[in-house]
Amino acid sequence: MSLYECVMIARQEISTQQVEALADSYEGVIKENGGNVAKRENWGLRSLAYKIKKNRKGHYVMFNINAPADAVHEMERLMRLNEDVLRHLTLRVDEFEEGPSIPAQMQARTERPVQSFEKVAAPVPLEAPKEEIKTEKTEEAETKAEEEK
After folding, report:
1. Burial of 71 (0-12, 13-18, 19+ CB in 10 A)
2. 46, 74, 92, 148: least surrounded by Cβ within 10 Å?
3. Is the pLDDT of residue 111 over 90?
4. pTM over 0.85
């Protein structure tokens, strides 16, 4: 069995639950044909670089698949027939990447809670050195003060 990475883009009009159901059906096709899905990541609704079939956004789903070629061909055939799938790309890889993918990491970063600045102690302002700027008037005032003494 070979290792594959597949990314699917579904239409923006379908709900997240429908995208999950669609991904479950493709995962079932892989399992029926003797393979398994090692990892599945839902990257969510993202903007497309250009319009695809009059859509500006799409739901992205990534699969890491360990299956024979026939199982992957059947899954791709079903993706081509489904109108909700805008695009898909399947690549054969030597090994799967460990941990979450780059888009999943970016999504986790944006979902991180933001710290409020109220909890952080206010910085202590540094005192700037006070330099006297000598002008002609200050020099004249100093000379008059010395003469009066």
Report:
1. buried
2. 148
3. no
4. no
